[in-house]
Design goal:
about 130 residues; alpha+beta; Nucleoside Triphosphate Pyrophosphohydrolase; 9 strands; about 35% strand; globular; NUDIX_hydrolase_CS; NUDIX_hydrolase_dom; hydrolase; hydrolase activity; NUDIX_hydrolase-like_dom_sf
Length: about 130
Amino acid sequence: MSVLIDTVAWVRVEDGRVLCARPRGKDVFYVPGGKREGSESDLETLLREIKEELTVLIDPSTAVHVGTYEAEVPGAPTGTVVRMSCYTADYEGRLSASSEIEETAWFSYADRPLVPPVDQLLFDDLKASGKLI
């Protein structure tokens, strides 16, 4: 039986590095974002999750879809796949980790092994397009 985990992520690249976050109680970093709730649109999920995780407000008028990636989830039952719809967007406020997030970091391509397989696919595309150092 296959299980699909449907997520939306915010791709924020500055100076050749992409913003990543490590949730409280976990030892792995992810591109910020999270699971869709109910019938939320991608944009609604993006705005809610980024406000919850990083305490900033995404400007919905600037959101641009940059890719959707799928990969198996390590350590999960066989057939468990995460789908990550990725968007860039401007934001208002000061980036800071919320109570859900232990720490944030700016990752270069060299940090690719520290993120899950689905995030690694995004890293590959960012590197190929010259956005990630």
